[in-house]
Amino acid sequence: MLRFLTTRAGDGILTLAALVTLTFFVMRLAPGGPFSSNRKISPDILANIEATYHLDEPLLQQFLRYVWGVVRFDFGPSIRFRDYSVADILISGLPYSLTIGLWAVLVATVTGVTLGILGALKRNSIIDYSAGVIAVIGIAVPIFVLAPLMQVYFALTLRWLPVGGWGDSWRNLVLPIVALSLPNIAYISRLTRAAMIETLRENYIRTAMAKGIGGRRVVWNHALTGAVLPVVAYLGPATAAIITGSIVIETIFALPGIGRHFVDAALNRDYPLVMGITILYGGFLIVFNTLADILRGWLDPRVRNE
Amino acid sequence: MPLIQMTDSLLRVRDLVVQFRLPEGDVTAVDNVSFDVAPGEVLGIVGESGSGKSQILFSLMGLLAGNGRVSGAAHFAGQDLLAMPPRALDQVRGVAMSMIFQDPMTSLSPYKRVGDQLAEGLIVHKGLSRREAGREAGRMLDRVRIPDAARRARSYPHEFSGGMRQRVMIAMALLVKPQLLLADEPTTALDVTIQAQIIDILAELAREMGTAIIFVTHDLGVVARLCDRVIVLYGGRIMEEGPAAPLFAAPAHPYAKGLLHATPRIAAPLSPRLETIAGTPRAGGAMLPGCPFASRCDQRIDICQTAQPPLKVIAPGRLSACHLTGNAA
Amino acid sequence: MSDTSLAPIPQSTLSLQMGRFRQNRLAMASIVVLTAIILACFIGPFFFPFTGEDADFDAINLGVDFTSIHLFGTDNFGRDLLVRTLEGGRVSLTIGFLGAVVAAIIGVLYGAISGFIGGRIDRIMMRLVEVLYGFPYVILVILLSLLFGGGNLALFAAIVFTLWLTPAVIVRGQAQSLARREFVEAARAGGMTDGQIIVTHIVPNTLSTVIVYSSLLVPEVILSESFLSFLGIGIKEPQASWGNLIQSGTAAMSTDIRLLLLPAGMLATVLFCLNFIADGLRDAFDPNDR
Lengths: 306, 329, 290
Hints:
The complex is a heterotrimer.
Chain A: H1 2-29, H2 43-52, H3 59-71, H4 86-121, H5 126-140, H6 143-157, H7 171-200, H8 203-210, H9 215-252, H10 259-267, H11 271-299, H12 301-304
Helix pairs in contact in A: 1-11, 4-5, 4-7, 4-9, 4-11, 5-7, 6-7, 6-9, 7-9, 8-9, 9-10, 9-11, 10-11
Chain B: E1 11-22, E2 25-37, E3 42-46, H1 53-61, E4 68-76, E5 79-80, H2 86-89, E6 97-100, H3 114-126, H4 130-143, H5 149-152, H6 162-174, E7 180-184, H7 192-209, E8 212-217, H8 220-226, E9 229-234, E10 237-243, H9 244-249, H10 254-261, H11 302-306, E11 312-315, E12 318-320
Parallel strand pairs in B: 3-8, 3-9, 6-7, 7-8
Antiparallel strand pairs in B: 1-2, 1-4, 4-5, 9-10, 10-12, 11-12
Helix pairs in contact in B: 3-4, 3-6, 4-6, 6-7
Chain C: H1 13-22, H2 25-43, H3 81-117, H4 119-133, H5 137-147, H6 151-163, H7 165-179, H8 182-189, H9 194-230, H10 242-251, H11 258-285
């Protein structure tokens, strides 16, 4: 276990290093700069500002300076939000993004697995069909269509829930979490359903039935593991999907999270902020991928031995 | 009506029909099969693949595939297994009747410790505690001669070889001390050298416990060694039935004869090539007129194509379904 | 069930699979609807005396009126909504199908080479895929489309670059098992080079899987394109795309939901159809899957 964790940590750092390098150079090689747009700044002042952010140094030197900073957990100042460091922005946004994201993962997993299993056990039942409909909608209707429609219907027409923003009430969270989890509910329920049906065809399920321990026990004690394993493997991609989703969801619902900053930062070439968000997201992905692997090893002894 | 009536049979199967609904139409896998099993008796059911022999066992255990339908009756200890709802059947299967499957590699759950898989039946049916059940399981693994059984009970199936897994399956089936054991080609998937060991373990334990066995196989050597009585199945129908020794010495039905000839013998002089039965089993299930074996039979006469030969008594305790044999009755 | 053998029906696998596909009513209906939408997008705009970028300031924010020339009304610049939506469809569909094909080709070649050659090259190639898999996908797409300077081509390249991974992994697995098969041994013994074997034996044998997966890639590419355009990174005004139309529709949705519904409905319909077709293909090619 310890060896597994250390190799995974090594892999994670490698991935992160590749991500940082790639992001850094892609960002810098992209045309434009943080001050190239709108306002006219005199060359003197521009040179001055660029010197402040070390943008006048050779690229490699800037890169090394940045990496040295990251190693010391110094992500530099934001260029666009003056007086704020990248760390400040990340820390202030993180609680909102995490709340939404983790709830979405939880809701998606629980709902998706439940729907998938019920659908597989009672094939062609009403539950199976409604799960199928939800799955099709979740997969085919993008969340940037779904979220505005939900706003129109539940907030503007029915006035049940707020249109957006972050209040003290849980009611602000309902629409963003539902919108964010729906595509994953769709995916997970389909995954679970297919895996459950396949598992129920396995010979060891027949063996368990032959033991006369009852259908319910066979499903819960024997079939469930096989049905849930693909979902566990999907946990990594699901996290990526939630990250992607949170970028639009935070914009649409005007939530003060991190995702909302990303597009802005990228378009305005706020180099340090883009880098900081990239590292944070990359880190999340690595953590969840590792978590998924640990969970898989715990459920499937054959994986453990590899 | 079966022609051999037992007064004290443990299992009494009557007019068993198993059909499968396929997109191409219904297929009959087992066609009007009746037989009895006495307590402690070892009955062999032989036939080539597709003869319906495994489906007989699945239908008794309530394990037919979803598109399978069964009719007839199978009285076991006074109850009709085929008429029981699954919940009632769960009081019989895994308790008084258990089954060993063909493929030991896939018949155990890969996610659970072998000992736990064994113990489960005891916990559910006998109300033993986890610990007691675990101890029983370890003892049983020891009896099927798994070395270092107590420790191995904590291993997972993928850590066992095929032969060892089949021993585990045997231990699991016999742990509840069943009256009847259904063995579905338990050695087919194993190395030849291991087959004999498995058969010996199975036979020995069943004898000790007084368990009756229905042994389904296409391996006639195993049947000769193990079984008291034999049923030869072809196209879902019983072709010949009788005590093992006389049947092997002098098979009556042309198919049984062919089957025995097709088995290579070490003692026999080496023939230039292996004997085979010409042709392939006919497709489309058994619900066709005439004898299912007719098209491959070298003694075929006209009536074989049109009329189904009934099972007839050809000697005391021996039955055959052929127009040419046994008008002794 | 090994005990119920039936004589196999002699028929080519492909025709059997296509026959199975044709029996899938949902998939067949989806093909009809999708074809209609494609035709409408590519031909429809020619029937109107204006393009989607022609602003008519005398006809701003017209509502739905099937008797007028502006069937679904106009936006706040007086541009025809229907024509804009159809023109946006052209872009989305072109990028979707081309992107899927290109991503599939890259993935197939990469996977086939990696799986067939094996050994250290395979390990290095798969390591690269793993590292890329570990990247947050959006970030990569957004950054790449910035790098390529914005515009349709940049968007296209960025999306393709992030979507070839899955086909590569799948094909690699297949190539690995194919590499051990007798006919590949025979080809090698017959003096074929690795490159020839990959092209003539490995790739064709992975084709049915590739078709199934590329059919899933099409909606994914379309989704990515509209996602980025929605965020203002992909296709930019005044050129129309479903993503940026939905974006401006969202901005006006509290007063006039029509601007959101038409492009959103169109996009959702196309995604529905593509998913049903992909499902149908998967069921037809791999009936044991469900």
